[in-house]
Structure formats: C-alpha cells, structure tokens
Design a protein that fits this description.
The protein has 159 residues and is of the alpha+beta class. The chain has one domain: Alpha-Beta Plaits. It has four helices and seven strands, in the order E-H-E-E-E-H-E-E-E-H-H. Strands 1, 2, 3, 4 and 5 form a five-stranded antiparallel β-sheet that branches. Strand 6 and strand 7 form a beta hairpin. It starts with 5 loop residues before the first strand and ends with a helix. The relative contact order is 0.20.
C-alpha cells in the first residue's frame, strides 16, 4: 500500500545576500522532502513590521510530501540553517538569508507549541497570499473557509 501524501503550502522569503539564489537553493532543497508540484514567480516586496531592512524577494510553493507537519517544519528549519539563517541570534522579523513558513498542510488545523496550522497570520499578508494565489488560487483556508484568491482580494479591498 503506498504511503499517503499531503499537500503543503510553503512561503519563501529572503532579503540578505543574493535573494534569488537563496530562494532557488531553498526550492532545490525542498525536493529532498517530496515532490514540488508548483512554484510561484518571485515577488519583490517591502518589509513589513521591522522596516529598517532591505526589500524582500518572496515566493510560494506546493510540496507533495509524506512527512508529518512537525517533520516538515524540522526540514524547513534545517534548510534555513543550511543557507545561513540563525533564528537564535537574528531579530524577529529582521533581515534574513532565508525564511520558510509552513502555511497550510492539506486541510489540517493544528495548534501545538511548535507549530500552528494554518499559519496564523497568512491571511493578513499580501506578500504571502499573492505568490500563493498565483499557484493555488482555489486552495481553501481550513479555518476561514475562503480561497487564497478570496483572501488576497479582501486584503486588496481593505488597503
């Protein structure tokens, strides 16, 4: 019997070093953990919150994986470390070579000390929703019961 696979939506961001090379390396690294089924284009965006830092390059991808959500989170953190990110010493929301966020994992709703799914702020962030809407506009937010395209439209209308 084949192992069950799950569709994970992952946000990627970089604003230090060669942003494009960092995102490309992350996408390549993700292939070790499943099958990449879609990758968005790269979006140049202004920083949010902590504003005194360089602009970001953001993207999103869909990964079919057999990993559990916690295993996938560990893999994402390992990829970040391999590309020079040290979460222990860098300021929250500050400059980083790479940021990988697990946004959605099928329709799972999870709230553990290590991981909250869906990502608790994804519906408020155009820099997350725009790339994801490019590759998965009909993907459904399992708590808000709106598609990614609808969530992006709500942000556009409220800004």
């Amino acid at each position: 019997m084949p192992l069950r696979s799950y569709t994970a939506a992952i946000a990627l961001g970089s604003n230090l070093g060669s942003r494009e090379a960092n995102l490309n390396a992350a996408v390549e690294s993700l292939c070790a953990y499943g099958e990449l089924i879609a990758v968005s284009s790269f979006h140049d965006t202004a920083p949010v919150g902590y504003l005194e830092q360089p602009r970001f390059l953001n993207a999103a991808c869909l990964l079919e994986t057999g990993l559990t959500p916690h295993e996938l989170l560990e893999a994402l953190l390992a990829i970040e470390r391999s590309l020079g990110r040290d979460r222990a010493t860098s300021p929250p929301k500050g400059p980083r070579t790479l940021d990988l966020d697990l946004l959605l994992y099928d329709d799972l709703v999870l709230n553990s000390p290590e991981l909250t799914l869906p990502h608790p702020a994804m519906h408020q962030r155009a820099f997350v929703l725009a790339p994801l809407a490019e590759i998965a506009p009909q993907m459904l937010h399992p708590v808000l019961h709106k598609t990614i395209a609808q969530l992006l439209s709500l942000i556009a209308h409220n800004s």
